[in-house]
Amino acid sequence: MKIILLSGCDSCGKTTTFNLLYDELIDNMNAQIIKKKKQLGANKKDFECILSYNSKKIALFSVGDFSRKVTSAFKDYEEMACDLLICACNDKFKLPYKKLKNDDKIVEKTFEENIKNHDKTNICDMKKIKKILSKFINILN
Hints:
The protein is of the alpha/beta class. The protein has helices at about 15-25, 65-80, 95-100, 120-140; strands at about 1-10, 30-40, 45-55, 55-60, 85-90, 105-110. The protein has one domain: 3-Layer(aba) Sandwich (Rossmann fold), CATH 3.40.50. The longest helix has 23 residues, at about 120-140.
């Protein structure tokens, strides 16, 4: 299983970026739902789900503010035979980063102080993940 990790500090927009990615995959890229979007954790917008895209099983896991949950997600989604896990992780943690393999990718979440630019920044970061996702899908096929 390959991993794309969206890394960022507290409240920088990781969950918002994940929701944008989910919408993009479902609405514009024709991904099919395997495991329905399920809310997780204290943040009502955090979720997990599994999608099928280009015959590949892709897990999304946005709960990145708990190190053990992130590392458990690595194991859990691999056991579910996912080809790709896209997950969030707070950059203050060490263990999840140590568990990444050389061909996994880290996307640094852009921190934008100006609230007027949050939407634009989150869309830009979502597009970065989408580009890596496309490359991984081509490699896996």
